Automatic annotation (TrEMBL):
It comes from Xylanibacter brevis. It comes from the Bacteria. This is (Fe-S)-binding protein. PANTHER family: LACTATE UTILIZATION PROTEIN A (PTHR30296:SF0), UNCHARACTERIZED PROTEIN YKGE (PTHR30296). Pfam families: CCG (PF02754). Residues 4-84, 127-221 form the Cysteine-rich domain.
Length: 245
């Protein structure tokens, strides 16, 4: 299968190491992965801000760039969810839409398609797992507590393949961290307090690191932890899975 690697703009600009780790891990698993050059934003920031028409040209470009691949894989839950759920509507009657059926978050792809079961990296630390809202409720990476279904967590399943790791979860494990994209700009005080509460619950686990599948949530909590002077570090789950490979 041919895999197109999509690295969202904020990952490329702020967390390029996550993009590198994703490519590294996919290649380690002997997968045929390509990083198409001149890829751009998927259009999520514009659409979330109420300017959907400005997202359409970016959606068209994304389609043209990635339509040839069997799967499009990205280390970003929110961008993946936006493409999967919104492109069919944004592009209806304007452009052929194929990628919404092909795109997957890298955790979902490794867990459900590749079905990785071999030992991966080495990370001898206690890690608190953050379950991002888009991942829980739009991509099904873990079970949403409000639905009272049998618990599952695809991120945790993959982390169990890492040598030396101790994975824990905070109280209220699938509660929002307060980022929410534009929400953090429009409701700064509420967003900040939600982030403070969430970081405190992660710290209460005794973990040295907080990890998750979405850099945006980790970025929000890391900023709060830094301002609060909290001694906790942050790593995307793919950085941990590929650590030491």
């Amino acid at each position: 299968m041919k895999i197109g690697l999509f690295i969202p703009c904020y990952v490329d600009a702020v967390y390029p190491e996550v993009g590198v780790a994703t490519y590294k891990l996919l290649r380690h698993l002997n997968l045929d992965v390509t990083y198409p050059l001149k890829q751009t934003c998927c259009g999520q920031p514009m659409a979330n801000a109420g300017f959907e028409n400005e997202a359409v040209p970016l959606a068209k470009k994304f389609e043209d760039k990635f339509k040839e691949f069997d799967y499009v894989v990205a280390p970003s839950v929110s961008c993946t969810a936006f493409i999967k759920l919104n492109y069919p509507r944004l592009l209806k009657g304007k452009h052929e839409c194929q990628t919404s059926d092909k795109i997957m978050d890298v955790v979902e792809f490794l867990h459900d398609v590749v079905k990785v079961n071999q030992p991966l990296g080495t990370f001898p630390h206690k890690v608190s797992l953050h379950n991002s809202c888009h991942g829980v409720r739009e991509l099904g990476l873990s079970s949403p507590s409000e639905e009272h279904v049998a618990p599952f967590n695809k991120i945790k399943d993959l982390l169990q393949l890492v040598q030396g790791i101790d994975v824990v979860e905070p109280d209220r494990p699938d509660e929002c961290c307060g980022f929410g994209g534009m929400f953090s700009v429009e409701e700064t005080a509420v967003s900040t307090q939600m982030g403070i509460d969430k970081v405190e619950r992660h710290i209460a686990t005794g973990a040295k690191y907080i990890t998750g599948a979405d850099c945006s949530c980790l970025m929000h909590m890391a900023g709060i932890a830094r301002k609060q002077g909290k001694d906790i570090q942050f790593k995307h789950v793919i950085e941990i899975l590929s650590s030491g490979l």
